[in-house]
TrEMBL record:
Main localization category: nucleus
Source lineage: Eukaryota, Metazoa, Ecdysozoa, Arthropoda, Hexapoda
Alphabetical keyword list: Nucleus, Ribosome biogenesis, rRNA processing
Any Gene Ontology CC annotation: small-subunit processome
Family the entry assigns: Belongs to the UTP23/FCF1 family. UTP23 subfamily.
Residue span of region Disordered: 178-229
Domain called UTP23 sensor motif region: residue spans: 187-206
Function text: Involved in rRNA-processing and ribosome biogenesis.
Biological processes annotated in GO: rRNA processing
Protein name: rRNA-processing protein UTP23 homolog
Subcellular location as annotated: Nucleus, Nucleolus
One Pfam family linked to the record: UTP23_sensor
Polar residues bias (residue ranges): 207-220
Organism: Glossina austeni
Gene3D superfamilies referenced in this protein's UniProt entry, alphabetically: 5'-nuclease (3.40.50.1010)
Amino acid sequence: MKITRYKKLNKTLAFFSAHYNYREPYQVLIDATFCQAALKNKVIVEEQIRKYFQVQVKLLTTQCIILEAESLGAPLVGATQIVKKFLVHKCGHEGNPIAASECIKQMTKDSRYIVASQDKSLQSSLRKVPGRCLLYLHKATPTLETPSQASKKWVQKKLKNTLTIDIEKIENLKSQNGINLTEEKPKSKRRIPKNPNPLSCKKSKKQSVNNIQTLANSSKPPMKGKRKRIKLPRHVKEFLRDN
């Protein structure tokens, strides 16, 4: 079996186990339509179902299912022989048999059965009831149907009610212990805007122009200073000549 099919199977079984108390060994209630489809596709029912589930399962049928298959005569001779191989479960209609579909509906009211059937009307009827698990043959492959919308909605409603009850319990415990339920949360302090970081500020164009000019001026070679001449008075010059 492919990994994806195995994961889907485990997910579906986990859903019904968690929310509707399905337990091992899983009880599979098989009708004649399922056996007829298995015969047509050359499927060995018991072998393929056990191989598909890979857990403990019980394959069951009822007296009503067998009697209805027998009453249909030649078209379902092979299916009747197959369905008779399974354990006949007491349905409460012994001596007063009813239609197989009605028998299955009544059987699934109080017990957790995985219904193996190809009957479209029966499948449609069971999908409307929360907690009903269906198995059918897709060609030669047993397939456990994912939970119906009715089953999912019932679980969602149950979880919502449970959550509401838990919240009420918490509120009651708080009130009993004197915890103020209307206690205000401390107000957060208002942040005062700070001055911007000078390193992250963009410099003005004037400063950049001035910086460029200073760099240009600093790149020029320094000019040599002129030599200053000192004028001497005339009498000093004459004195120097005489000496």
